[in-house]
Design goal:
Layout (H helix, E strand, L loop, with lengths): L4 H15 L2 H8 L3 E6 L2 E6 L2 H22 L5 E6 L14 H13 L29 H12 L8 E5 L5 H15 L5 E5 H13 L3 H9 L3 E5 L8 H16 L3 E6 L11 H8 L2 E5 L4 H15 L5 H10 L4 H18 L5 H7 L1 H4 L8 H11 L4 H5 L5 H18 L3 H7 L5 H17 L1 H16 L3
Parallel strand pairs: 2-3, 4-7, 4-8, 5-6, 6-7
Antiparallel strand pairs: 1-2
Helix pairs in contact: 1-3, 5-6, 7-8, 11-12, 11-13, 16-18, 18-20, 19-20, 20-21
The protein binds adenosine-5'-diphosphate and magnesium ion.
The site of magnesium ion has 4 residues, from helix 6.
C-alpha cells in the first residue's frame, strides 16, 4: 500500500529508470515530484515548461501506466511547472530581416561548404533546416533547439556526446547559427577544442594569455567542439575552467561536445568534469535505416543531384554507424554521375563503393583490442602491460581484460600470461569488477559500448 505522494513518486521513478536511458532520465526527471493527488488525478511538478512539454509528449502514458499499477484509483496525470526561471523569449519577427539577409549572403557564395563566418567561426551551411531528426538524435536536437531560443537560460551547459560522424558538429553549429540570427546582439564563438588548446599554447609562448582570455570572455555564447581533446592538457583545462565559471555565473550559454560521456574522458580534472556533468547531458546514438535514408535524400537535395532510391538504399543498408562515411559514399557516386553524365545503378554503386563496403569485417583480435583501448583512454599501449598501479591505468587495463574475456573468449590464465604473467585470479577479479560496474552504472555500459563501436565499426 502506497502511503505518501513522495513514496509513490519514488516507486514510479525507480521503474521509469529501467525503461529509459540514464541521460534521459537525469534530464527529464530531475527535480520532479507529485504535487497533488486528488479524485483520480495525479499532478506532477516538473522543472520548466520545456520539460513539461517533453514529458507530457513522451512519457505521460508510461507514467500513467506505472502509477496505475501502484494506485488503481488514478485516472489521469497532469504536469505542472514547479519553479520556473523567468525566461525572455525574443520574437522571431524582429530578426526576420537578418535571416533574409543571411540567406542572400549564403546564396552568393560559390563554395558554401568553405564559407566560415569570420566573427563567429561558424559555417552557415550547418543549420536546423538541413538537420534530419530521428529517434537517435531527437533529444539532442530538441535541447539544442530550446537553447537556441533561450541561450543561457534553458540549459547550461549543454554537453552533447556521441561517436564520430553522427552530427555533433552539425548540431552545435546549427545552434550557434540560429542564436546568431535570433539574437544579433549576442556574440557567438565556435571553437574546436584542438584550436582552443593550441590557442592557449601559443598565448603562453607569446605572453598573451590575458588577451586570449579577454577575447573569449567578451563572447556571450561559447561553443567548444570535441572536448575529449582536453584529456591530459592541464594548462588548457585550467584556463577553460576559469572561463567556464565566468560564463556560467553570468548566465552565458556554454555548449560542449565530446565523443564520449564526461566520465569516460581520461585525465580530466575532477572539478572540470563536475562542471561538465552539472548541466544537461544528451547523447546522439546511431540512426536507424529509415533515418539514414532520409539523411541521404536530404543530402541529394542539398547537392542538387537525383540518385536512384535503390542506390541510396544500398548505401544506407551498408553504412550504418557513421553519417560522414555515408556522405563520403554519396559524394563518390555524385562524382561518377557528374563525370559520366549518367546516374549510377546499384551494380555500379557496388563497384564504386567496394573498398568502403564490401570488405568482410575482420574478427577482432588481441592487438586490435589493445590498440583501441589505449587510444580510447589516451594511454600508451605499453602502459597497459606495465606494473603501475596508477588509477588511470589500472582501470583501462581491467577493461582490456574484460573485453578480451568477453569478446575473444580467452581463458583467464591465458589473459594473465599476456599481462606480464599475472595470476589468473587477478584477471578474474578484474573481469568481475567490470561486470559489476556495468550492472550498477549505465555510464560504464556506454563506455564499454563506445569502445566496442570503435573496435568493430572500422571498415578495414
Ligand atoms: P561529428 O561532429 O559528430 O563527428 P558531424 O556533425 O561532422 O559529426 O557530421 C558528419 C556529417 O554528417 C556532416 O556532413 C553532417 O552534415 C552530416 N550529418 C550528421 N547528422 C546529420 C543529420 N541528422 N542530418 C543531416 N546531416 C547530418
Ligand atoms: Mg565533429
Amino acid at each position: 500500500m502506497i502511503k505518501s505522494n513522495e513514496e509513490l513518486w519514488q516507486s514510479v521513478l525507480a521503474q521509469i529508470q529501467f525503461s529509459i536511458s540514464r541521460a534521459n532520465f537525469a534530464t527529464w526527471f530531475k527535480n520532479t515530484k507529485i504535487s497533488s493527488r486528488e479524485k483520480g488525478e495525479v499532478v506532477i511538478s516538473v522543472e520548466n515548461s520545456f520539460s513539461k512539454e517533453w514529458i507530457d509528449n513522451k512519457y505521460s502514458s508510461l507514467i500513467l501506466k506505472i502509477i496505475r499499477e501502484l494506485d488503481k484509483d488514478t485516472k489521469n496525470v497532469k504536469f505542472l511547472v514547479g519553479q520556473e526561471k523567468r525566461v525572455f523569449i525574443k520574437t522571431q519577427t524582429s530578426s526576420k530581416k537578418d535571416v533574409e539577409e543571411n540567406k542572400e549572403d549564403v546564396n552568393q557564395l560559390p563554395f558554401q561548404e568553405l564559407s566560415v563566418n569570420q566573427k563567429t567561426n561558424l559555417n552557415p551551411h550547418y543549420n536546423f533546416d538541413n538537420f534530419i531528426v530521428g529517434k537517435f538524435n531527437e533529444m539532442s536536437h530538441a535541447v539544442s533547439w530550446a537553447i537556441s531560443e533561450n541561450p543561457g537560460t534553458a540549459y547550461n551547459p549543454l554537453f552533447l556526446y556521441g561517436d564520430v560522424g553522427l552530427g555533433k558538429t552539425h548540431l552545435l553549429q546549427a545552434t550557434g547559427n540560429k542564436i546568431d540570427t535570433l539574437f544579433p546582439e549576442k556574440k557567438v564563438r565556435y571553437i574546436p577544442c584542438e584550436r582552443f588548446v593550441s590557442g592557449i599554447v601559443s598565448a603562453i609562448r607569446d605572453h598573451s594569455i590575458a588577451e586570449f582570455k579577454k577575447n573569449l570572455r567578451e563572447s556571450d555564447v561559447l561553443i567548444i567542439d570535441d572536448v575529449q581533446f582536453f584529456a591530459g592538457k592541464e594548462k588548457s583545462q585550467e584556463e577553460f575552467f576559469h572561463i567556464f565559471n565566468i560564463f556560467y555565473q553570468s548566465q552565458k550559454q556554454i555548449i560542449l561536445s565530446s565523443d564520449r560521456p564526461p566520465k569516460a574522458i581520461p585525465a580530466i580534472e575532477g572539478r572540470l568534469m563536475s562542471r561538465f556533468e552539472g548541466g544537461m547531458i544528451s547523447d546522439i546514438g546511431t540512426p536507424d535505416l529509415e533515418t539514414r535514408l532520409a539523411i541521404l535524400k536530404e543530402k541529394c537535395v542539398e547537392k542538387n543531384v537525383n540518385l536512384k532510391t535503390n542506390v541510396l538504399e544500398y548505401i544506407a543498408t551498408n553504412i550504418r554507424s557513421n553519417i560522414r562515411e555515408m556522405e563520403g559514399a554519396l559524394n563518390r557516386l555524385i562524382f561518377f554521375e557528374k563525370f559520366n553524365n549518367k546516374s549510377p545503378d546499384v551494380e555500379t554503386a557496388k563497384k564504386l563503393l567496394s573498398n568502403l563496403i564490401n570488405i568482410p569485417r575482420k574478427r577482432t583480435d588481441f592487438k586490435k583490442i589493445i590498440k583501441t583501448i589505449s587510444e580510447f583512454y589516451n594511454l600508451k599501449e605499453r602502459d597497459l602491460f606495465s606494473k603501475t598501479r596508477k588509477k588511470e591505468i589500472v582501470r583501462p587495463r581491467q577493461v582490456a581484460m574484460y573485453i578480451l574475456r568477453e569478446d575473444l573468449n580467452e581463458s583467464f590464465p591465458s589473459i594473465g600470461r599476456k599481462f606480464d604473467g599475472k595470476d589468473h585470479t587477478t584477471i578474474i577479479y578484474a573481469y568481475n569488477k567490470i561486470v559489476k560496474e556495468i550492472k550498477e552504472n549505465d555510464n560504464v555500459l556506454s563506455e564499454i559500448n563506445l569502445i566496442r563501436q570503435k573496435l568493430y565499426s572500422e571498415l578495414k
